[in-house]
Amino acid sequence: MSNAIATGLHILAAVVWVGGMFFAVFVLRPSTGALEPGERLLLWGRVFARFFPFVWASIVLLLASGYWIIFAGKGGFQNLPMYLHLMQGIGWLMILIYLHLWFAPYARFKKAIAGSEWPVAAANLNTIRLAVTTNIVLGLLNAVIGATGRYWG
Question: CA 20 to 30 Å from 92, out of 1, 59, 99, 134?
Fold first, then answer.
């Protein structure tokens, strides 16, 4: 039962993180194009302030549930199928990209917003978009690996 709970939490955390990024890049971003630059950047600031705590919670849940599954459900790394090693590696890469995003371009973005430095904020928003788009690709790849990996042979 605990592995079922861990798996459920793992999937929910992944859906929140990857789904939120997908929505931001492919739905919200194109929809903000008609806004004035200052208004658009302020909106993104509010969106990030609400979404990023969910990303932090998702990361904690993904790590806790993933390692619970590995150690309690699979007996540790020695018996772990290759697809789970791949998922773990991709997951850590996503976390590292997010940490960079948080501590570098997002920190500069927040500072620029606070000072109404719209060109600086816009440049950092673009950097954030590139990092998030990379994480969308990695997250979707991880979802496919998670869903199909047990059938690889």
Answer: 1
